[in-house]
Every structure is written in C-alpha cells, then in structure tokens.
Amino acid sequence: MQELTKLHKGLVSVESTFGQGTTFTVHLPLGKEHLPATQIGAERPRASTETKAEAFISEALRWLPDDILADPVFGGSIVPMPVAASGRARVLLADDNADMREYLARLLLPRFSVLAVANGAKALAAARRERPDLILTDVMMPVLDGFGLLKAIREDPALHDLPVIMLSARAGEESRVEGLSAGADDYLVKPFSARELLARVAVNLELSRARREAMAAIRDSEERFRAFVTASSDAVYRMSADWSEMRQLAGKEFIADTSEPSRNWLTEYIYPDDQPAVMSAIQQSIRTKSPFALEHRVLRPDGSLGWTFSRAIPLFNGDGDILEWFGTASDVTDRKRHEERQQMLLNELNHRVKNTLAMVQSIARQTLRNATSLSDCRDTLSDRLIALARAHDILTREHWEGAELRDVVTQAVAAYAGAPEQKRLRITGPALRVGPKAALTLAMALHELATNGVKYGALSTETGSIEVTWTVQGEPASFVLRWAESGGPAVIPPQKRGFGSWLIEQGLSQDLGGEARLTFPREGLVCEISAPIGEIRALPEGELMRGFSAF
After folding, report:
1. What is the CATH class of 62-217?
2. Which end of the chain is more exposed for a tag (fewer CB within 10 A), N or C?
3. Nearest by Cα to 101 from 144, 135, 70, 137
4. How far apart are the C-alpha atoms of 146 and 95, rounded to whole Å?
5. Using H for helix, E for strand and C for coil, what is the string for 390-424?
6. Is residue 325 within 8 Å of 241, Cβ to Cβ?
7. In 87-206, which ranges are E strands?
8. Residue 403, helix vs strand vs coil
9. Span 221-330: which CATH code?
10. ω into 476 cis (within 30 of 0)
C-alpha cells in the first residue's frame, strides 16, 4: 500500500495503541496534474467480448414503457393473439413467471404475434385451438412443465413438427443435450441478451419454414431436396426408419462418402466412446418421432478425429409412420478445439495462481517468523513480494514460456546495485533461457543475496561491487552460477542462518534439484549455485545468441 501511495504522490500514516487498535490513514491528491506525464498511461482499446455492449443496451431500452403492452395484456393469464392477417409469425410463449413473461413478450411483439400463457397445460390447449408457428417455453412450470409440453407436442400428429425453443437457467452441455434429446429444436440458457433471443426465434422460424418446404419438395423430387440440404451443410445423409442402415452419405471431404447402403456405419464413422450417446439420442428420437440432434466425434478419412453437430429429421407417410431420416452434419471441430484450449488455459492459470499463492504464503510465514519488529517485517515482506512480482513481469512478457537468464539477473539485482552500465554490477555468461519455475526460484534467491549485500555486504558501501557469472559445464551438462562480492566491509561469518539463506539453499534444492553453497571469505560473500540443466537451455545461434562480457 505504501509503494502504491508513493507512486500517486500521496502519504500513508499509522497510529497504533497497544490493546486498542491501529488506524491507517492514506492521503492522495486529486486529479493527475501532480503526476509525471510518463506515468500516465494512455487508454487502450478494450478487447471485444462475445456479447456486444450494444446488445445489453438494446435489452435495457426494451424495459421502457410501451403503449403496445398496456396493463390489460398482462393482467390476465393469456395475451390475445393478433389476427393472422398481420402476416407476422405467431409465437406461443409459456412461462409461469409474470415478470419474465411480460419481458419476453415486450421483446417479441415488435416483430411477431404473441400468445402468452402461464403454464404448459394452457400452452398445449392454446396450440391445439390455434396452431402457432413456434413455441417458446420455460422448463420449470406448474401443472405441466416444459418437457411435458414438449412430449405432448411431439406425440400430437397435428403439432409434432412445431419448432420448440426451451428456456432454462440450467447451463452446461449435459442440460443442453437433455433438452435437444427430448426433441427441442433449440435450448437457450438464462440469462441471455435480447438480440440473442430474437435471433434464435427468427432462425428457428426460418428453419421451420425451410423444413416444411423441403419436405414438400421431397414428395415431388428427392433430388431437389438433396441439393437444397447439401448446399447448407458439411455432410448429408439418409438413414432407414430404425437407423439400422445408412442408405447414403455425402461427406464432402469432412467424412468418407457412402454410395452403397451400410449397416456398419456406427463403427465406421462414430468414435467408440461416443457411440452409446449417439445411439441413446437416436432411440429417443425414434420413440418421440422428433428430430435427432447431437454433437459428437467422428472418424475422418485421414484417421483423425473431428467434431460434428449432426441433425436429422424424420420423413412420414400419410399414416404418420416414419419412412426414413434425412440428416445434415456440420463440422464444428475448430470450435470444439477452441473450447478445449480455453479450458486448458484456465487450468494452467489455476495452477499458476495456486503455485504463486503457495510461494507468497511461504514468504509471509518465514518473514513473520524471522522479523525483529513490525517495521522490519513490513519492509522485508514488501521487498520480497515486489521481487516476486518483477519476476512475474518478465515471464508474462514472454507468455510464461521462459525468460533469458540475463533479464532475470538484471531485474532481480539492478534495483539495488544499479544497471550493469554503472560498473557496480558485472554480468558474464552465455545466452541461456530458463523455464518459468527456474526463473522464479533464481530471481528470489538473487533478491535475497542483493538485499543482504545492501545491509551488510558489498552494496553497503559506495566502493563495493558484485560480479555474477554463469557457465554450462560437464557431461551430463549442469548449470553453475557464481555470485561474488568485493570492495565492501570485511565479512564476518554469521552465527546462524536466516530465512534468506534458507530460501537460497533449500529453495534451489527443492525447486531445481540443485544446491547452493554460501562461503564467507573476508573480502566478500560468495554464493555458488549449481543444478541439472533441467529448465535451463542454451539459446541456439542466431536466436538472440550473445556472450555477456564484464562492463
């Protein structure tokens, strides 16, 4: 807190009374005129998020009063449906929450005719009384819930092909698959933006219209229908009524084509671990005579795995029996890999945060244990945390793929000894790159050496200097770093070791599998660190390769 306050030209004061408490007071000047121009950062454009801000603004504006939604509309359980002559698609909305029902109707009414009811039973009665173009239903409702309504719709010959969008607060792939497996055409998780809802409704209405036209075209010309579907997907297939036989598959290089009927399609095309889920979804669709829809993995022609969103609709005869299934499959491999990479990055971030917190906890515990006063504890802990943060800065710039050893040494020591150009710090060694774990461990060890040098060693006088050298030697190769102080006061070997010595000797042993040896010749402290090459490697020639001479 003190460092941050100083950066803002402020002042921190503290008053403490034993047994009563402590008061910290922070004084900060207003504005930014007191700050140097170099410390005032320019505004940066923020990264775009998946949901645009305009969508939420649009959603908020829709809560303003609207004459079209007068009180009588929502005073009862049903909103009267505008006449069909309006030419607008008719949406049947079912939700038991009056506020949500009113909100959804506000969103839909400017573009669609809306009939709003309070539960699934009223929705089913309304649909049978006057068929809508689409049903938008909540999952959790009294009397008849969303799944019960969906089941009744799919079992009704006059309504079975109605598009149904389910709304639910249950997120996750399992809930989505459950809704789609039950026969829903789409599944929208709350909360959602107004733009997303309107887009889903519009898209499903368009798909429903296209589906009706396509089915009519099939009866007249199967080839015309196939051309229509083929143009809109990565693969098109035909299945027998019970899915025991794949009659045709046009894979369009996404998956292998099948020109002859095949009864081995499951093992030929579907990844073994996904076969049970695929068959379960198929059986559910056959029972309910509803569209099949599922994301699953497939075997590609080159032997690799791909992800697809597969969807098939049943074709019926005059008696309502399924004749066969027409399906499409879209390649969603890139999206799934992106999702997997996001999860991997989240796991990596979680791992790094836990490691950092563990290190901070250890530093804090040992600092408190060895501190001689509150002031000493505060200053020492602050310095150690700042050193840790500086090491993190280097690794962050390199995307946590490692860092150059010279950067690690300079960052850890220059704050105390000055830049190498100022002659008090001399660095010599080949260009090496260290991994994240080694970089943090070395940075903390060098920080402890530097702070000790400021208090008692070479850096406590104006004539003292430090030389840091490193080499790679031996077979198998090992890394050796030497810290040597000179020009300071005469060294007196300590009677006991503090946390700094422990961090240097034990920390390097635990984290790098190496060892550190502290010696105390009269002319200045010497620390030699050696470790297996491990996370440390030489940079290839041409990749920032340079030898570091003494300045």
Report:
1. alpha beta
2. N
3. 137
4. 9
5. HHHHHHHHCCCCCEEHHHHHHHHHHHHHCCHHHCC
6. yes
7. 90-94, 113-117, 134-138, 164-168, 186-189
8. strand
9. 3.30.450.20
10. yes
- CB distance 81 to 108 below 8 Å: no
Q: So what's the pLDDT on residue 292?
A: 93
Q: How far is CA 304 from its chain centroid?
A: 25
| Predicted confidence (pLDDT) at residue 474 exceeds the cutoff of 50 | yes
Q: From CA 118, how far away is CA 95, in angstroms rounded?
A: 5
Q: Which two tokens stand for residue 498?
A: 């503090």
Strand stretches in 143-227, DSSP E: 164-168, 186-189
Residue 124's pLDDT is 93
Rounded distance between C-alpha atoms, residue 282 and residue 95, angstroms: 29
Which helix or strand (DSSP H or E) is residue 531 part of? strand 526-532
Tell me which DSSP letter residue 507 carries: I
Place of tokens 């079209």: 68
Strands 90-94 and 536-538: unpaired
261-311 residue pLDDT tens:
888 888 888 999 999 999 999 999 999 999 999 999 988 888 888 888 889
Q: What angle do CA 367, 371, 375 make, to 5 degrees?
A: 105
Q: Residue 31's pLDDT is what?
A: 77
Query: What phi and psi, each to the nearest 5 degrees, are found at residue 125?
Result: -65, -40
Superfamily of domain 337-538: Histidine kinase-like ATPase, C-terminal domain (3.30.565.10)
For 46-83, what is each residue's pLDDT tens digit?
Answer: 555 555 555 555 555 444 433 333 333 333 333 444 43
Q: Is the pTM of this model over 0.85?
A: no
Q: How many CA atoms lie within 13 A of 537 on its CB side?
A: 10
